[in-house]
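Write out a record, focusing on structure:
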Amino acid sequence: MTRAQSKVVPPPDPATGPASVRRRLDAVHGWWRAPRLNAWVVLLLGVAIVSRNPSTVHTPQLWAEDGTIFLVQADWYGLEAFVMPHVGYLHLLQRLIAWSAPQLLDPLWWPAYYNGVALVIWLLVAARCFSPRLPVPGRLWLALSLVAVPHAGEVFFCVTNLQWVTALVLVQQALVLPPANWRQRLGDLAIVSVLVLTGPFGAAFSPLYVWRWWRQRSADNTVLLATVLLGAAIQIGHVLQMGQTAFQALPVNVWAILEVLVRRVVLWPVLGTDLTLGLSPQVVRWIGGAVLAAIFVWALRPHPRRGLRAQFVAAFLLISVASIYRARPDLWAGDNLMVVDRYFYVPRVLLAWLLIAEFDSRPRAIAYLARAFCLVAVVVHARDYVLPAPRDYDWASHCEAIRRGEPADIPILPEGWILEYRGRPAGRR
């Protein structure tokens, strides 16, 4: 026997051989058929979120009302600030963060705390898409759409604008399956109770909860609806107390509103800034309006998922009406696609959710068209995915006055904003 003939060939390693590869591929395929939250998904979502605006991590700074309203009023009024409306409604979540910061940390760390809590809440909203109680398709795509949709960037990731991403939780909560135990029941009520007192979105989305109760008049849905309606009544009361602004009382130009809505939500994501702004108002209205109408009509066709898609359509219309009433874009002198873009963030996400719900449609041409729309939106705005780092105003060099509770003018984001810190009452120093 020769040496070659006597050579022993080792058996394939079960950890690295073909069988192992097949098992791994089967595991990935099984996860894709029934996505569930795990450490890898959390890591992916976290990277996607942080990479959108990395300066919030490596150079945390306060943003606008983070400092000028929530920090200052928490420092001056303490717990009383919780019942103080800002721009016509309560901001419970923001008040909780601003109140807890000085209880836990030195002022040096407040911007990091504000941004850190905001990032965690963003991650929780994305992770909520994987809840077994949420009967939705394309869970990973739904979660990623929160950060991948084109946006000017003002909602990422600050305490002031947390209400925009948490508004989507109210849509999720209107869709979840009934609670199976007291832990889920109390969790649902806690989430909804906080969110209906964080911005006016409980009022905007209350018809979704009325419809949920009408379809299944259980005790759980009754309590949930009562919670939403109570929160909505409180917020509407503050809005009415503030009264209409002068421009909100002016006559409405429906065509101008449609033009801004479809330009911001339908055309800008797939055409980009230059091409979108180059289109005539008539083209914007008719082409964008036709595309949006076609998506809605198709979503409402007879189908096992029509109920889900109908609620996405309803949520889109409800939040669009509320946002348009607030912003009144028909009175703008012009539209550069950046002004108050936060008002169009939730409609843009909901439109993405409608398209994602078509990823497995029949005929397959519709599925490919929906996927292409989303892919083009990501590619067109890829160069703007990572927001540039803003100017560093060196919070550390300014926060000594807050430690002492003495008045100071402190520069914060966005550029040009000044935190006019008026000191702390003698009894609270």
About this structure: The longest strand covers residues 408-412. Strands lie at 408-412, 417-421. The chain has two domains: 38-181+391-429, 250-383.
